[in-house]
Amino acid sequence: MAQPGAGAQADRFPAICDAKLTPGHGGAADLCCNVPMVTESQSPAHPTQAPGDGAPATQDDTAQRLLSAVAAVAAELRQSPSRTPALGLDDSLERDWGLDSLARVELITRVGQVFGVQLDENALTLAETPRDLLRLVHQAPPAATTDRLASAPRSAAQETATMPPGEAPAATPDTATTLLEVFDWHLQQHPDQVLITLYESGDESADLSYAALHADAQAVAAGLQARGLARGEAVAIMLPTGREFFAAFFGILRAGGVPVPVYPPARPSQLEDHLRRIAGILRNSKARELLTVERAKPLAHLLRAEVPSLQAVATVADVALPGSVPTTHHISASDVAFLQYTSGSTGEPKGVVLTHANLLANLRAMWRASGTNARDTFVSWLPLYHDMGLIGACLGALVVGFHLVLMSPLAFLARPLRWLEMIERHRGTVSAAPNFAYELCLAKVSDAEVERLDLSSWRLAFNGAEPVSPETLERFAQRFGRCGLKSAALTPVYGLAESSVGLAFPPLGRGPWIERVDRIALAHDGVARPARDDDPAALRIVSCGLPLPGHEIRVVDASGRELPERQQGRVQFRGPSSTQGYLANPQANARLFDGDWLNTGDLGFALRGELFLTGREKDIVIRGGFNIHPHELESAVAALPGIRKGGVAVFPASDPRHATERLVVLAETRTTDAAQRAQLAREITALSATLLGAPADDVVLAPPHSVLKTSSGKIRRAACRELYEQGRLGTTQRAPWRQWLSLAGSAALSRARFAWQTLARRAWGLWAWAVLLVLGSVAWCLIMLGPQLEQRRSTARAFARAVLRLIGLPVQVQGLEHLPTDEPCLVVANHASYLDSLLLGALLPPRFAFVAKRELETAPFVGAALRRLGVAFVERFDAARGIEDAQSMLARVRAGESFVVFPEGTFRRAPGLLPFKLGAFVTAADAGVPLVPAALQGTRSLLRAGAWLPERGPVGLRLLAPVRPSATGWDAALAARDEVRAALAAELREPVLDHLQ
After folding, report:
1. CATH, residue 802
2. Three-state DSSP class for 951?
3. Is residue 460 part of a domain?
4. Nearest to 160 by CA among 450, 536, 388, 429
5. DSSP for 209-224?
6. What is the pLDDT of residue 878?
7. Burial call 33-46: b when 16+ CB within 10 Å, e when fewer
């Protein structure tokens, strides 16, 4: 779910729908085009009247007013309004007028207001031209105050939906290893329990129980097997939101097949073109059958000619054999559950292979991170062909056990208020959407409607699958706070299809964390330096949260070396939710995998264990939660007469109005005739609509050499975007070669700066090792020869301090006054690096001994020196020896010795305070000595686990107020442990982990 990601961003949705959650064909309706295929409307029911007039308006007047409304919306979309051509009633709203799905939503609303009618939500799909829209206006009933949805009666389970997370009983068995095992458990425990309340159209709903869904699935499974489906064969599903989709999905699984959800066409007129585009998916998956709607069947010959494996295009009704029982196949956790094709318009489909184990691991991790349980109610309008809607909502309902209220995406687009009303009606506690959906609610829900809403039950409002706007979060919280929505409910998340769906969630109940960073430092140096309070140009970036339990995220540079906090780099991940790769796509897999890490395609930085996304490596545009790849459109536009070959760039540009991205086409031409240029712009818009499923937001016709390229001829889309956002494309007075030279110089300077920084970092790391080895050899000799323990410890301290001075490491220490001087104590420190002991040895008095794992006692050279320094070794694996070691340490404390202890016992590469072992706290309680919490900062980045070269950066030590156990015994040790851990967590501001991930 989340912000952008590689492949399927975010599902960028930070983007949940990549669709990496990020999860294309751009535009909200394409994300949401889970729409029924409808037939022509009937004859007009009444004449259209102008608002306020008693007599019907003439047909000419009505048409002119309609065209004015269309032209106004089209003009608002363009940065160059003068380019909007003079078009008529029969020109395509999409290809000619350039109105994408979001614009059509706006248009439908305005037309309804202009003519005082209530347009049906199907107008979004029926109206291909203004004339179609005019016909629908004639048919529409007069606008009236829409009755709000009545509150639905709540079940006993739903009444407790807002109980604190964790109090709900387990909804499914933890031992289930496949989706079918989970389904069968529900079927056995409560067959008549409602899993999904489905709104297929309007306000009429149907409750789907486990028993009903099972019967549907059994019929489809039996039918597929009778038609020859073999175990492991793929079956594609191209169906709108409805009962048939679930019958098909679970029926394919029951039959032993592999479901392949694909998105349906946005409008009936696009069906043929759409089928041609999905042929690549069907070929890649080797789909045996395509289950779809009746309307698509006559075009089956198009697909069967292009997809050798495809044997039939059928409806669910064609396939189903009600009452029949399919043959049972053994399904294991490692079997493929389904193929999730990353949303895109490229000719190279990427089918993300997701096993049952991947999905269950991801859903259970999200369950733990979000606190969702069987008492929750999830309200969703997300399409079912998308990972955020299918996995996060639908399969989440199955695995977690919550009640799912599911409505059509089209119903949301036509009337965004309906989503919020559904949350109120069903007392929804959880819902998810990409950023544009929250913006749509802000734009389309009136103040009067806001005042009537009650959103107090909504505790988790996930925002993911495309970049999350801090302004959207703030405005949504402020405006809908009047409805009872708490700002902490807004939950930006990050995911991608390659990690099933979710990857990073913020701490529960904290609300959004918006970090202000220096824009120039980030752009030039890749450093997310905190911005000054008075910096008006500060860049505000929303945290995506912490990695899900059991998962890891890291940020690396171009060479694959992990970067310290606040350093921008490539985002990688690994964990049990990670895909096995893309189906039959070795080139894409080579780009995806970096050892056991997977590349997201996103750029970002880490801070206190949380991920902040700053951009994308790939030149894709995310619009409405979908990824749009530029290459296909660039080639097609370059083939147009009048456009220079190789002189086309397609790139994204920020769109603050809709909190999404604009699709911009920059094309070079020598044509100066205004009419010819207008014709070229129309043809480019039409090509965009055909190839990408969405028209370009802006077409810039520029003189030759305006498209910037590298020396090897590659298009520099990021540089073109920079010029565009500065308003300099096509209008700059400088010669193109001067523009190129300026930008090339900037790029070269940036590369040189990066190379110098990399060289400097590596040189410092090598110098640090040289100092450590040379001084360490001298110190080892002195320690081995030193006659007294106090002298040996003073030598070790002098060695550590000399190392810090010679390598020039900036060190801050605070709180030394908290160390008792008249009694022994235990200093309890967090553990982040092998250099923790060096830093503590340099900064603490030499009277402190260290506690270390017993394995170090026999380590060559090191073990001998540690024994001479009086280190207390403790056994971690042999219980009897461990008790003996603890008693020995207790005796030494009672004798007056002070120790430094790392209660985590180990450390890891990712930030987070691990669970504390109790040995030190039992010792302190039984000996009656204080515990001094010691917060180490920066040592993890100094030498991260798994790395060998140190990274220079500020480090620090802060000793906190002592904690004295209240008594002896176990309970006192537990209380002291919790108090120390809480103090360290508050100081470090790192995630507090309940287990070692």
Report:
1. 3.40.1130.10
2. coil
3. yes
4. 429
5. EHHHHHHHHHHHHHHH
6. 65
7. bbbbbeeebeeeee
Tell me, yes or no, whether 692 lies in a domain.
Answer: yes
Assigned domain for 336 exists: no
Q: Cα 968 vs. chain centroid, distance in angstroms?
A: 48
Q: Are 443 and 411 in contact (CB under 8 A)?
A: no
- Cβ distance 691 to 699 under 8 Å? no
For position 621, what pLDDT does the model report?
63
Residue 979 domain-assigned (yes or no): yes
- Per-residue HEC secondary structure of 68-114 comes to HHHHHHHHHHCCCHHHCCCCCCCCCCCCCCCCCHHHHHHHHHHHHHH
Helices (H), ranges, 559-630: 586-592
Token digits of residue 22? 């990020």
Residues 532 and 671 in one domain: no
Average pLDDT taken over every residue of the chain = 84
Instruction: State how far the Cα of 989 lies from the Cα of 751, in Å rounded to an integer.
Output: 34
> Which range of residues forms the domain containing residue 682?
630-733
- Total domains, the chain: 4
Q: Of 484 and 743, which is predicted with more confidence?
A: 484
Q: Name the pLDDT band for 38 (thresholds 50, 70, 90).
A: very low
Of 2, 7, 12, 11, the residue nearest 615 (C-alpha) = 12
- Please tell me whether residues 608 and 637 are part of one structural domain: no
The CA distance from 32 to 412, in Å, is 9
d(CA 335, CA 552): 24
What distances in angstroms separate CA 304 from CA 300, 317, 879, one per listed residue?
Answer: 6, 20, 67
Instruction: Write down the pLDDT at residue 659.
Output: 57
Residues contacting 583, CB < 8 A, separation 6+ = 284, 285, 339, 351, 352, 353
* Ramachandran bin of 929, using left for φ above 0, alpha for ψ from -120 to 50, beta for the remaining angles: beta
User: Residue 14: CB partners within 8 Å, gap ≥ 6?
Assistant: 2, 3, 4, 5, 21, 22, 464, 465, 466, 467, 468, 492, 493, 494, 495, 544, 613
pLDDT recorded at residue 847: 94
Which tens digits make up the pLDDT trace of 285-296?
999 999 999 988
Report the amino acid identity of residue 928: G
CB of 663 closer than 8 Å to CB of 692: yes
Cis ω before 300 (30° cut-off from 0): no
Query: What is the number of other CB atoms lying within 10 angstroms of the CB of residue 240?
Result: 22
Query: Within its chain, how far is the Cα of 983 from the centroid?
Result: 31
Q: How far apart are the first and last CA of the chain?
A: 21
Whole-structure pTM over 0.85, yes or no?
no
Phi, psi values for residue 887, rounded to 5°: -65, -35
Tell whether 877 and 961 lie within a shared domain. Answer: yes
Query: Which amino acid does the sequence have at 107?
Result: L
Task: Mark whether 443 and 523 lie in a shared domain.
Answer: yes
Residue partners of 128: CB distance under 8 A and separation at least 6: 92, 93, 94, 267, 269
| Longest pairwise C-alpha distance within the chain | 111
- β-pairing, 626-628 with 621-623? antiparallel
Query: Angle between the 210-226 and 179-189 helix axes, to the nearest 10 degrees?
Result: 130
761 Cβ neighbours under 8 A, 6+ residues apart: 951, 952
